[in-house]
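Journal club side-thread
Mid-discussion, someone asked how the predicted structure for our own chain would compare to the paper's figures. Pasting it here so we can look after the session.
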Amino acid sequence: MTNPAPTNNSLTDVPGFRVGHAAVAGPGALSGTTVVLAPPGGAVAAVEVRGGGPGTRETDALDPRNVVERIDAVVLTGGSAFGLDAATGVMAWLEERGRGVRVGPEPHQVVPVVPAACVFDLGRGGDWRARPDASVGRAAAEAAGAAGTEVAEGNVGAGTGAVVGGVKGGVGTASVRLASGATVAALAVVNAFGSAVDPHTGVLYGEYGEYGEGDLQLPSPRVHLAAQEEIARSRERMGLPPLNTTLAVVVTDAPLSRPQAQKLAGTAHDGLARALRPVHLMHDGDTVFALASGEHGDSGDAALGALELNHVLAAGADVVARAIVRGVRAAESIEGPGGTFPSYRDLYGS
């Protein structure tokens, strides 16, 4: 069904897509924004929200019953609902390039539709008001526009202040090429109230699907006990309320219709459920976007057949789970006025 991962094992393995990160500057800041930029001409897009406490913008525009056919960018941001202002900067950047929904005869007469979703990271750097704004969104868009195929992971962009179950979270990405030649990839911002770590073994939940049971390298009981004690202390230091959210963007070059993209956004949530436990809680705003460029296959293909679509749906869940694992593994420990958040690799090693 699938072939080995493409070159970068990242979202940019789907041709034309690019990723840019920007962080909030200044003392006491621990937040940022990530922009996923679609190829010129945009991408079919959809979204599925399953967390009980989402913070989103322009998600209704993606409903297949509504008028917007394609979009040019998705914004993932820290700063809770305040951080959604980052999308304003991305809109301005796109407008300057004539990208957006055309509403008039002149090239500049466009309205960029920029869906966005946020994670809760307020105060984790010490300054409650240090959160993304339009300037941070513009910086992330500029970074995406200038980016190559490499995608930074860990404490970058919207993952700068991310925490997952008391362990430092971050941005991760992964991809797979299907037997058909189409590519499916994901980028995740891992910031869940639930845990990514199995408390019985210390293994990341998302890795159980990657290896056979005999192939997993379990940490020693001594290392595991010490790590679990530190994770418990980190959770206690964070206190309540447990405000979090995990975000993901799944992209493909397969030709999907808008309803098919909607289905992909929904089944990709299975990847969250494999890699994080529990998920979709009342204080999580778990949201997955799906984007399809349609560049793979015959230009006349309006959409995939049901059997081909099944392969894309299954791969979407797989790459989301792998992206979450990579985001947790890439994250680095943080110690500052807003808290101490140990990384998985510092707790358990490589």
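Post-session note: Residues 306-330 form the longest helix (25 residues).
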